[in-house]
Design brief:
Helix content of chain B: 25-40%
Oligomer: heterodimer
Shape of chain B: elongated
Distance between the termini of chain B: 86 Å
Number of strands of chain B: 27
Shape of chain A: globular
Largest interface: A-B, 39 and 28 residues
Strand order of the largest sheet of chain A: 4-5-2-3-9-8
Order of helices and strands of chain A: EHEEEEHEEEE
Structural class of chain A: alpha+beta
Strand content of chain A: over 45%
Structural class of chain B: alpha+beta
Number of helices of chain A: 2
Distance between the termini of chain A: 16 Å
Chain lengths: 108, 623
């Protein structure tokens, strides 16, 4: 089981972490809410939960995923992209069967 | 596919519930919008990658144009191109007229306190012009953040008065924006550098823009930024440095003042380019078009530029010196100096400011963007994207707020330096029997007597049910919102009749006036106390007179002999005379005398009252 991120995404994460001045990495998670079942979460991580967190390292960035979320996120690649003026992180999740129009939530 | 931002631990929002917020620096010449994304505050560029938006709005029959395109039309279509709405906003017509006839706009003549400008698209107020700028910036933020803004923080100059602040808020409302709060520009700059999270201390914010210069001395005290003093020059900025270079070139190249407009404008641009080049190079080549299709070639070195620039920089330093004096601090007391405004990019300015304050000024954040960035950081906190332990930036009331009570005395409801927002209530009562209305006079200041304070507003509470003096209970609530706007509400508690007023005084107070008012309250402390004592004695004396006269009118003839009545009337007249004189102790003495003279009368009235109440009843009924 693993998650990964693209070089571009890794670069952005590193720069955001530097700017923030603290944090060990980013947490990827899913939570049950949203218009189409599950929603993605991406947060800074200050402390690891040794028991429940799995940690992956990709392009020098620590990706933290709790074991429950990992079931839904296995194989996910996080990318960073631009759409017009808007820019941000995208989850390319092979487990997602359908997403809502906005792409913020999905079902497996 | 939605594009997500990294949230703080535990703060990730549910889909479609992202609390998007932006900070807007609504400037005189240029405006900017910034936002916090993935924990990083940045100014947001437009699709062409430009961060600044010229604060220029052009009205055409086909619609409204904002920004660069509008600015270009300023010369060809001056009447419909409004370029300095910020100088007009929240100011009455009379004020603007005194601003000088230099404004090329056509003002619609009318009595209203809000000026209106005539354009081909109809009459517009400065508020509406500002709203157009805000709309463009908000749209940019929404496109960039990918959703609707839950709110914005807009910055205003520290010297903006309540009316100008209210008008700025109204402009935001017209633009359909929710304003979390307004923030003082120097405070925003301090926030951008994180000074609010540092130790308490005094900071100087040096803001040299294109056309204006502001110096603010701020004190951080327990998480609250207090503006200690402001100063500056509303007609000094980067343009003056360009002008100085241009004049030097004209002298060297033999161009006369009355040269073609086109030539002069090109010259100003060349001068500006030279100024910018001299920030990194020790000298720069000049190749100037001169009238009659010729060209002049030369060079300007740093020494020459310093000779031209130093007199202008000296002006800013004297303003700093004055601001320090107003704030009552020394240059050595200043902990940090924050540089704001594009003109602080000039190394010479940094050098001289550093010399004066004896410390290296903070220049890491782009001085054009620092105010917007501070506003964005504040907006992010207010939108609820930060854990609770991040303290909210607070402001304080600069002067006490209170109301007039009997005798021209001031009852302070909210003391000065109270952190806002705040609401305080106090109960008042009627002075006369059967009084059905009460005049509420809201004042601001530190002195004891109304005449020495600043009158903010007056209103009346009507419909108080008739009761004996002192029986009615009227609760007056003063609330000051996060932007310092005061709302006063009076409510009669038995019937619930209410009246209220929102104070937007047309003239605010400059910091000098505030300092002056504070000073006066100390200088006059003793005489104020005397005056208060006299006024209080008068009120008490008048209360005795009123009560006694009411009693005499109801049963004086029945209960008193002519002799008795005569002695009471005499004592009453003496008291009345004492009230008219200026001796508090005499009033107190006479009031006491009246009470002594009337003792038997009071007793008789009580007995008569009891008899009346008991008449026709058996004594057993009262046991």
């Amino acid at each position: 089981m693993a998650v990964s991120l693209t070089e571009t995404a890794a670069e952005r994460v590193r720069s955001f972490l530097d700017n923030r001045g603290k944090g060990v990495g980013v947490r990827l998670a899913v939570k049950t809410s949203g218009c189409s079942g599950m929603a993605y979460v991406i947060e800074f991580v200050d402390e690891l939960d040794e028991e429940n967190d799995a940690v992956f390292e990709d392009h020098g960035v620590k990706l933290v995923v709790d074991k429950k979320s990992l079931l839904y996120l296995d194989g996910t690649e996080v990318d960073y992209g631009k759409e017009g003026l808007n820019e941000g992180f995208k989850f390319n999740n092979p487990n997602a069967k359908a997403s809502c129009g906005c792409g913020e939530s999905f079902t497996v | 596919m939605a594009l997500l931002q990294i949230a703080e631990p535990g703060q990730a929002a549910a889909p479609h519930e992202h609390k998007l917020a932006a900070g807007i620096d609504l400037g005189t010449t240029n405006s900017l919008v910034a936002a916090v994304r993935s924990g990083q505050a940045e100014a947001l560029p437009d699709a062409q990658g430009r961060h600044l938006l010229p604060s220029v709005v052009r009205y055409t029959p086909d619609g409204v144009i904002v920004g660069y395109e509008a600015r270009e039309a300023a010369a060809s279509d001056p009447l419909n191109t409004i370029a300095s709405a910020k100088r007009l906003i929240g100011r009455p017509v009379s004020d603007i007229k005194s601003l000088g006839s230099s404004l090329p706009y056509e003002f619609v003549d009318q009595d209203s306190s809000v000026p209106r400008l005539r354009t081909v698209a109809g009459d517009v107020s400065p508020m509406e012009v500002s709203a157009e700028i805000l709309k463009v910036l908000a749209k940019r933020a929404e496109d960039t953040l990918g959703g609707e803004l839950s709110g914005v923080v807009i910055t205003v100059p520290a010297y903006f008065d309540d009316a100008q602040r209210q008008a700025t808020k109204d402009a935001a409302r017209l633009a359909g924006l929710n304003v979390f709060r307004l923030l003082n520009e120097p405070t925003a700059a301090a926030v951008a550098y994180g000074l609010d999270r540092g130790a308490d201390g005094v900071h100087a914010i040096f803001d040299l823009g294109g056309g204006t210069f502001d110096i603010s001395i701020l004190r951080l005290n327990k998480g609250v930024f207090e503006v200690m003093a402001t100063g500056g020059d509303s007609a000094l900025g980067g343009d003056d440095f360009d002008q100085a270079i241009a004049e030097w070139i004209m002298e060297q190249a033999g161009i006369s003042d009355d040269a073609d407009h086109q030539v002069l404008r090109q010259l100003m641009q060349d001068a500006r380019a030279a100024k910018e080049a001299l920030s990194s190079a020790s000298s720069t080549e000049l190749d100037i078009a001169i009238p009659g299709d010729g060209r002049w070639q030369g060079r300007i070195d740093r020494e020459t530029f310093y000779r031209l620039a130093d007199p202008l920089i000296r002006k800013t330093i004297s303003a700093c010196r004055r601001a320090l004096r107003d704030a009552g601090v020394e240059a050595a007391d200043i902990k940090e100096v924050v540089m704001v405004g594009g003109s602080t990019r000039m190394p010479r300015v940094r050098e001289k400011v550093g010399e004066f304050f004896q410390r290296e000024p903070l220049v890491d954040i782009d001085p054009d963007k620092v105010v917007a960035i501070g506003a964005a950081i504040q907006a992010d906190v207010l939108a609820g994207n930060k854990p609770d332990d991040e303290i909210l930036l607070l402001d304080v009331t600069p002067l006490s707020l209170g109301l007039e009570t009997m005798g021209g005395l001031v009852e302070k409801v909210i003391p000065r330096n109270t952190t806002i927002p705040v609401a305080r209530a106090q109960e008042f009562t009627t002075f006369k029997d059967g009084q059905t209305a009460m005049a509420i006079h809201v004042v601001q200041g530190e002195r004891e007597m109304v005449e020495h304070c600043r009158s903010l507003a007056r209103f009346e509470l009507r419909g108080i049910p008739p009761m004996v003096a002192g029986a009615a209970r009227i609760r007056v609530t003063f609330s000051v919102d996060a932007d310092g706007l005061l709302n006063v509400e009076a409510e009669e508690l038995s019937q619930g009749v209410k009246a209220q007023i929102t104070v937007k005084p047309s003239y605010g107070l400059s910091d000098e006036e505030i300092t002056g008012m504070l000073q006066a309250s100390f200088e006059h402390a003793e005489e104020d106390m005397e005056e208060r004592k006299l006024a209080e004695a008068r009120v008490e004396g008048m209360r005795v007179v009123e009560a006694l006269q009411a009693a005499l009118a109801s049963d004086g003839d029945r209960l008193l002999s002519d002799d008795e009545r005569g002695s009471i009337d005499a004592a009453l007249a003496e008291l009345a005379a004492a009230i008219d004189a200026d001796d508090a102790e005499a009033i107190e003495r006479q009031a006491k005398h009246v009470e002594e003279v009337c003792e038997f009368y009071v007793e008789r009235r009580m007995n008569a009252g009891i008899q009346e109440a008991m008449a026709g009843h058996n004594i057993n009924e009262f046991e």
